[in-house]
Amino acid sequence: MSSGRHCIRYSSVPAWLEGRGGRPEGYCHRVMLDAVFYVVDNCVKWRALPVDFPAWDRVYAFFRRWRVGGLIDELHDRLRGKVREAADRDPEPTAAVIDSQSVKGDAVVGAGSRG
């Protein structure tokens, strides 16, 4: 890890990560999340990560493992809940809007019910 990024090690593990155990990680999760956010925010390829971050293949391996394990979805849901609570809204959305651009009609759906 370069001198530009610092990792804060917490003595306790967040409750939502309790029981996931295993060998201690070689990289700071905060730095890995920052690298993933950089890729998403700047629309760059994994290989284009700046040298401030760990090697791109290590970051991608973390992301892939977190995605397969469901941690990315869990993180997204938790962040969405925090944002909604900060806006004085129910943390869980109660409605969604789906338009014809989001869902493509299937061959089994009759033409009369599409649109």
Layout: helices, strands, pairs:
Blueprint: H1 29-42, H2 56-68, H3 71-86
Helix pairs in contact: 1-2
Q: Strand count, sense and closure of the main sheet? A: none
Number of helical runs? 3
* Helix/sheet category: mainly alpha
- β content, as a range? under 5%
For the termini, the CA-CA separation is 52 Å
* General shape: extended
Number of beta strands: 0
Order of helices and strands: HHH
* Rg (C-alpha, Å): 19 Å
Mean pLDDT across residues: 78
Low-confidence stretches: none
Helical proportion, percent range: 25-40%
Describe the structure.
The protein has 115 residues and is an all-alpha fold. The protein has helices at 29-42, 56-68, 71-86. The protein is extended.
Task: Write a compact overview of the structure shown.
This protein has 115 residues and is mainly α. The chain has helices at 29-42, 56-68, 71-86.
Quickly list its features.
single chain, 115 residues, extended, mainly alpha
